[in-house]
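User: Can you help me understand a structure? I only have the sequence.
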Amino acid sequence: MARTSLSRRGFIAASLLAGGGVAFEFALPLGRASAQGMDATPITAFVRILPDNRVVIGGKNAEIGQGAKTMLPMLIAEELDVAWDNVTVEQTDADATIYGAQSAGGSRTTGREWLPMRQAGAAARAMLLAAAAQEWGVPVSTLTSTQGRVLHEASGRAAPYATFAAGAASQTAPDPVRLTLKDPSAFRIVGTRVMGVDTPAITQGKPLFGIDVDRPGMLHAVLETCPAVGGRFVSANLDEIRAMPGIEHVFVIEGDGQAESLLDGVAILSKSWWSADQARLALQVEWDTRAVEGYSTQGYAKCAGEALDRGPEKTVLDKGDVATALEGARQRVTARYAVPILAHGTLEPQNTTALFTGDAIEIWSPTQNPESGRALVAAALGLEKEAIRIHFTRIGGGFGRRLMGDYMVQAAAIAAKVPGVPVKLLYSRQDEFRRDFFRAGAWHELEAGIDAAGRLTAFRDHYVTFGVDAEPSRGAEVAAGIVPANLLAHARIEQSLIATNLPTGWLRAPRSNSLGFVLLSFLDEVAQAGGRDLPALLLELLGEEARTIPGSGPREADFQTGRARGVIEKVLAMADWAGRDGLESGRGKGFGFYFSHAGYFAVVVEAQVTGGEVQVPRVWAAGDVGSQIVNPLNAEQQVRGAVIEGLGQALAGQEITQADGAVEQANFDTHPFMRMDAVPEIEVAFVPSDNGPTGLGEPALPPVVGALVNAVFAATGRRIRKLPLREEDLV
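Assistant: Let's start by predicting it. Here is the structure, written out as tokens:
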């Protein structure tokens, strides 16, 4: 069976074949059997009923702190009609042939799974009712359910689901289209504040994460790669390292020079990670860096400036007649902005445990994208994808980093050298920072035209970023449908590219995390020049009448102006925007709005600037992510996390720099994150709309940095056009 995302009907059908073909198999935690599940009867690929009527539901998606392991089972439990406190959630294996898409990225999970997960729960309930009808000899239409029990009102009979579990498992899968789902007004679980299912285990220090995996006879591995990414192996003092105490194996991993697949490296294996890493200190490697040397932070800035001066290489969007509109404008506002390269900085370093047996491999990994990792491993080892079994572990921070499968294929390549022995590859903190897939740097030249009434009439953005052959590198592109370009008759977005050896990737809210700063700060400049504030400028562009603007591509959601207006007006009321002029000297409020990942968010940041120090006492955030917040507790946590991350990107001094092709930062001291004592009070509100629910992991982040620098401007009169904020920018 091909490993592809299943259609909705195929997905439900596959999930309901436990009695006839696909027996549900949970990933047993870290290889140890779950005692309570041994006698359970599987009803669907997601549901098991225990003899005591407790329900075990499989969480199919990667859990990176976004709450999917709790949210998706909530949807199943809701339609299954069981009490949440009677539910246990267990992580499934990674297997797209059974579970469909299991990746975690792009804030897609909620929208993608809203119906399929509810249908899976409703299907299990329908099968239980059908089994009860057969056993009791009554029409299924006369049966109802409540809290895990089947009821026959006419006779007064009632019995727990467990009574009918075996019979239900042999029922024919119902057509998902014919299933009747609950009206939201009848929800008992969805919409309630539910603690994360892993929270108790996390607070007790129980092993859940990839870094916790421990297999009998396991060896620990470190992998040394070239400091300048892409350098090729020449020679090393391998015999000297082999002779060191405690070292079991030392060998060269021959890759293809590509970070996305497999870099050259030297693997050192020991019975403890510490001894392997200590041996690495004595490792002396000669690398061929001719193809990757010379890249530097200063060089990028110089090349970007020259590219902006030269003019664009490619036009991404061209609406109306921008040149004429700018020429006829009463005022023209021009500015250049720059955003730095950033690292993900996941708290749990990259790791994977692998056991190679010659014709198959078993993998335990904290991956956001198991099928991508599976494909990489299959290609590297020459295996069929079906010969690769992947166990999900909980993920100690992803932010897009673990969408890449490099650490998985590295562990697999090392394990293939020692068949029959489990091998755990664990990055050091230095590895984590220097072998990242970084947020690309970008440089923008923006220009706007303002008419005599102060209205924005034309917009141009020439951006420079990393890429080759007219294609921006991963996560570096600019979508054509961004605000304000999608709201204007005259708009142009232009692109130029410069080379780098750094692999780039998706950082939480890709593209938008840097554009939010650039566009919102520049639009604040435009608003000031036109004699108004930024909210007024945006509301004017949106117009009074709600309309829908089609997305700029197949992966871009349509933009609904009414939803944008709703969150803007909401946050202005929350933050008492009208009263901002009464703030004391050195204090200001800044506004930001951004649409990304199908979510609408408006943010107000209050900043206090004293000397060269910025403090943020309060932040207000209002979002529209559809008609239903599945778990309000988790939803608020996602927004607060996004606010904290956005503030940290600007205030904590985050920046990755390079010298001669190598990254200079190696730990949190040189690429810091926001500290707990600097976290502001954050007020969150949601504006419901008549649209399907969408994700929350990312859309609250993009407006944060723009709102922050606009608050700094309101407090000091100093415009910030380059990140991160530094003391010299403020005094």
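Now, to help you interpret it: The CA atoms of residues 220 and 273 lie 5 Å apart. Residues 109-136 form the longest helix (28 residues). Let me know which part you'd like to focus on.
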